[in-house]
């Protein structure tokens, strides 16, 4: 039986104050945790006004390249604490800008996901993700990543589950109210643990004021909330999970994936 202690971290970043935001995040990492998921754009803040502003704060995070200050600090924290950390970061790759998440293991190795489904003004700020959905080994289990608005497309979580994910890490900056309930369905319909790490607070840097809904949570493959934070305040939604619960057997006669009939799922639009 493989058990892990996991945490969905909820913070309230001040836009552009990377040093202070990182300091606050380090204080929210629980001792003895195996896997911690931090919010989308967790150290910069969310509401960029233009691509030039993103470029100023974005950093290189690709494996094999010298990382920027946020990735470096998170890597130091992973190494010193033994926690595998997943965090949302603005990524720069040449003249491309991505809303990304990075998985950082205690040994310093890392893996990137670039957000595929961009939300609202993000379409003017970031390039669409180009790496697809992938699943990697971390903490002795299979972990996949998606970011915020990816939740509304059931194909995101389903693709990760079909690729073997047992845990889906979901860094977020949620402003729409429906995601926490929908992630129960995503967990249940894919029989995976989901970890949504959201932020709280407001940003008023453009003509579209944003208020973030919090409610960071950990959900089991049977749709049970194992931990959830409130709509205000920072902290860690902490849970101990038994990874064997991510099996696909619904009844003695029903396997979630073996029973699929994909030949009937494609609508004929010709």
Description:
By secondary structure, the chain is α/β, with parallel strands linked by helices. The chain has a single domain, classed as Nitrilase/N-carbamoyl-D-aminoacid amidohydrolase (4-Layer Sandwich), CATH 3.60.110.10. The chain contains six helices and 16 strands. The protein has helices spanning 18-28, 51-57, 69-81, 122-125, 154-162, 179-190; strands at 3-10, 35-37, 84-93, 96-104, 110-114, 135-138, 141-145, 167-171, 193-197, 200-203, 210-213, 217-219, 225-228, 235-242, 249-251, 254-255. A six-stranded mixed β-sheet has the order 5-4-3-2-1-14. It has a six-stranded mixed β-sheet with strand order 6-7-8-9-12-13, with helices on one face. A hairpin with a 5-residue loop joins strand 4 and strand 5. The model has no long low-confidence stretch (mean pLDDT 96).
Number of spatially distinct domains: 1
| Secondary structure tally, helices | 6
Question: What Rg do the Cα atoms give?
Answer: 18 Å
End-to-end Cα distance, whole Å, is: 49 Å
Fraction in helix? 10-25%
User: What class would the helix/strand composition place it in?
Assistant: alpha/beta
Q: Would you tell me which CATH topology applies?
A: Nitrilase/N-carbamoyl-D-aminoacid amidohydrolase
State the CATH architecture.
4-Layer Sandwich
Largest sheet: spatial strand order = 5-4-3-2-1-14
Unreliable runs: none
Largest sheet, strands/sense/barrel: 6 strands, mixed
The CATH class is Alpha Beta
Please report the total strand number as a whole number: 16
Q: Looking at the structure, what is the overall shape?
A: globular
CATH superfamily, by name, is Carbon-nitrogen hydrolase
Strand content: 25-35%
Q: What is the overall pLDDT average? A: 96
Oligomer designation: single chain
Give the ordered list of helices and strands.
EHEHHEEEHEEHEHEEEEEEEE
């Amino acid at each position: 039986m493989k058990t892990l202690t996991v945490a969905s971290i909820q913070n309230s970043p001040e836009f552009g104050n990377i040093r202070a935001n990182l300091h606050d995040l380090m204080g929210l990492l629980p001792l003895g945790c195996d896997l911690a998921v931090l919010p989308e754009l967790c150290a910069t803040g969310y509401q960029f006004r233009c691509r030039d502003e993103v470029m100023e704060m974005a950093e290189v995070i690709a494996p094999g390249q010298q990382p920027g200050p946020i990735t470096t600090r998170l890597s130091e924290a992973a190494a010193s604490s033994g926690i595998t950390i997943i965090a949302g970061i603005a990524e720069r790759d040449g003249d491309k800008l991505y809303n990304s998440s990075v998985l950082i293991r205690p040994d310093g190795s890392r893996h990137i996901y670039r957000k595929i489904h961009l939300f609202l003004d993000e379409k003017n700020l970031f390039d669409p993700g180009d790496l697809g959905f992938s699943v990697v080994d971390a903490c002795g289990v299979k972990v996949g990543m998606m970011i915020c608005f990816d939740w509304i497309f059931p194909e995101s979580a389903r693709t990760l589950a079909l690729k073997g994910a047992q845990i889906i890490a979901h860094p977020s900056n949620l402003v729409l109210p429906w995601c926490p309930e929908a992630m129960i369905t995503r967990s249940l319909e894919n029989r995976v643990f989901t970890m949504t790490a959201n932020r709280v607070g407001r940003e008023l840097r453009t003509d579209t004021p944003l208020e973030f809904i919090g409610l960071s949570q950990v959900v089991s493959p049977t749709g049970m909330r194992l931990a959830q934070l409130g709509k205000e305040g920072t902290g860690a939604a902490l849970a101990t999970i038994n990874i064997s619960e991510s099996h696909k057997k619904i009844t003695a006669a029903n396997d979630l994936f073996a029973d699929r009939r994909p030949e009937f799922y494609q609508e004929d639009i010709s």
